[in-house]
Amino acid sequence: STAEFDVRPGGEVHSFSRSLGDYSCTFTYSAQGGTNEQWQMNVGVSEDNGLFSCSIWRPQGKSYLFFTQFKAEVKGAKIEHAMAYSQAAVGARSDIPLKQEEFEITETAVAHREGKFRFELSKLMIVAKAPRDEL
To answer: Which GO terms describe its biological process (predicted)?
Structure first.
């Protein structure tokens, strides 16, 4: 399921969340400059309910806001793979990932790295695995 939301500048911390079954994804950020931008968040669950995905992006491909911080957090699952991009694919252009030192990935979140992040963000992608119940 895909939901649209506004990314608002002004330096305040905002967050947007979506839930699906036992899972949820929350995008928290603060940004400066420009005007509101329309972004999208997509959350999905695999057929066997074992994988949860969360993607957050600007459909236009590039954000012109100046992000001072960001964090995308999942609940109900542990991150298997995550990536952050300064530019999202649109038309013939492809995704441009942030440099490895600009962000960090933990078991439950992908977030900017203080002092290293260069303030550009246009897309975040997370794939997380459900904890298996031990018998």
So the answer is: positive regulation of angiogenesis; positive regulation of endothelial cell proliferation
| CA angle (88 as vertex; 85, 94 as ends), nearest 5 | 105
Q: What does each C-alpha distance from 127 to 9, 23, 116 come to in angstroms? A: 27, 12, 24
Q: Can you name the residues that pair with 84 across neighbouring β-strands?
A: 124
Is residue 88's pLDDT more than 90? yes
Phi, psi of 101, rounded to the nearest 5 degrees: -75, -10
Within 13 Å of residue 102, how many CA atoms lie on the same side as its CB?
A: 18
Q: Look up residue 69 and give its two tokens.
A: 């911080």
Q: Distance between CA atoms of 42 and 109, rounded to whole angstroms?
A: 16
pTM for the model stands at 0.94
Separation between Cα atoms, residue 98 and residue 87, nearest integer Å: 9
38/122 Cα distance (integer angstroms): 11
Q: What gap in Å lies between CA 128 and CA 82, rounded to an integer?
A: 8
Residue closest to 45 by CA, chosen among 115, 127, 116, 108: 127
- Which of 6, 5, 72, 62 lies closest to 36 in space, CA to CA? 6
